[in-house]
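Recap quiz, item 2
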Amino acid sequence: MTQSDRRRSQETATSQGEDTETATESAPSLFDKCHQFFDESGDYAKTKDADLYPYFRPIERNEGTSAIMNGREIIMAGSNNYLGLTADPRVKEAARDAVAKYGTGCTGSRFLNGTLDLHLRLEERLADFMGKDEAVLFSTGYMTNEGVIQAIAGRNDIIFSDKDNHACIVQGTKISLADTQRYRHNDLEHLEKLLRRAQQDRPDAGKLIATDGVFSMSGKIARVPELLDLAQQYDAALMLDDAHAIGVIGPSGRGSASTFGRSDEVDIITGTFSKSFSSLGGFAVGDHDVIEFIRHEASAHIFSASMPPANTATVLKCLDILEEEPERLERLWEISDYMRDGFRNLGFDVWDSETPIIPVVIGDMNTCFQFWRDLLDNGVFVNAVVPPAVPPGQTLMRTSYMATHSNEELDQILDAFHKVGKQHGVIGSNGHSVSEHHANGHARNSRSSAENVNSPATGHMNGSASGHSAAA
Ligand SMILES: Cc1ncc(COP(=O)(O)O)c(C=O)c1O
């Protein structure tokens, strides 16, 4: 009898006035929390009943910037498909060819029967792309960060971890035997205080600073130059999780440190294939000995099956396209600047996002779920983010963009936000109307055409897209 069966029979017994003692006795208390999760007064039941539950919504068809949900076409403004390559015919063909040649799965870990020549080719290509000695693949980005930290940070070491790091870094610190010290988000004075104390108290401890290169909720870039200076001053290694940076920022999309021209100084850079590279998997790059050690010591690498052929071939093809079509990145930056300014001109708070991740602050939880639902009804899908991922009262619509979004789609997204934002009082009714901007045209495909644009939302484009290039 499953737990749900037991519960149902318990409910039936109660409704029939039977003695529930025996039924309750057979239900292990371990599962009390599971049943409480569905309590009528809880957030889950309330949002489900009101059809406002924003998670696990099935997509019935996916074309990249548009998709079918619940039989209706929506504009996708909530995916991490930054280069827009998931639906690219060349990428699909590469995946199909790999299945034809290698089959659908590797059925074993890299360590044993699961290494393909494709894996080696991809590792070489990534090491080259990132300007490092070696690369090692993992089957997800999550496993990459978890595995790298578990492998390199041991009992005598100390990890310094940004408080806003992704859950997989946190998980890595939990399973490693090292002492973990968390510093306040982006607060490098706090980090330095911890490093100084560690240097005094435990001078022989190995030290690792671990941070997201781009923070996944705020779209903010880590302060890489200062982090490197601190790492060098206190004899610590620096690890950057560039899940939202590789294929997005820096010259040719080489990530957060390359934005500052300092990739060669970073000890370990990790990335994922589930975002710009339209696939599934992850990797770490660094010096030869460090990466070879991780290859042999990371449990997530040794004890789990390797990346399937289609996923591996997809990433190789995406790397080709990234290198051959630099205009994709320019378009992505242009779109990001355009959307950030568009939201700000409408009166929304988008924090200090610097990348294609643009959070739009909504406020309390109820408004957040209703706002999300109203956007969906207006044909726009975004991600609703609630505490603990964000501070209480700072719920977000996490929006994110692809190089393939059309100008029309971008305007439809802004229009929907304008309408729903006014409806919920998140913006004042006197915010700029997006439709005023339509007349001027904007978010062109090339910078030269963008230079002709003269609307409140896009006047900035003359400078800011090239500002990114300068930073890159
Ligand atoms: C910063 C960051 N690191 C790692 C991951 C995990 O990547 P993957 O989806 O490949 O497991 C994510 C995924 O959302 C992420 O945002």
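The two ends are 60 Å apart (CA to CA).
The domain at 61-79+326-471 is CATH 3.90.1150.10 (Aspartate Aminotransferase, domain 1).
End of item.
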